[in-house]
Amino acid sequence: MDTTSSQIEPITMSEVLELASWDRPRSNDELRNFISTREAIVFGK
């Protein structure tokens, strides 16, 4: 049986809830902030 290993990033409930309303368009600042936060967690910045 093949097993595929992939890295799954942990995410907090508050991050999920912030993005839970997909009907609402996101501002550039919101998207940049989310990406920056995730990069800081992933890359340890």
Structural commentary:
- The protein is an all-alpha fold and 45 residues long.
- 49% of the residues lie in helices and 0% in strands.
- The protein is built from two helices and no strands.
- The longest helix has 16 residues.
- The protein is globular and about 35 Å long.
Note the topology.
Blueprint: H1 13-18, H2 28-43
Features:
mainly alpha; 0% strand; single chain; 45 residues; 2 helices
Sheet of most strands: none
Rounded to an integer in angstroms, the radius of gyration calculated over CA atoms is 14 Å
Helix content: 40-55%
Number of strands: 0
Query: Number of helix segments?
Result: 2
Q: What string gives the helices and strands in order?
A: HH
**Contiguous uncertain segments of 5+ residues:** none
User: Could you tell me how far the N terminus lies from the C terminus, measured between alpha carbons in angstroms?
Assistant: 37 Å
What is the residue-averaged pLDDT?
80
Shape, per Cα inertia axes: globular
Helix-strand category: mainly alpha
Content of β-strand: under 5%
Assembly level? single chain
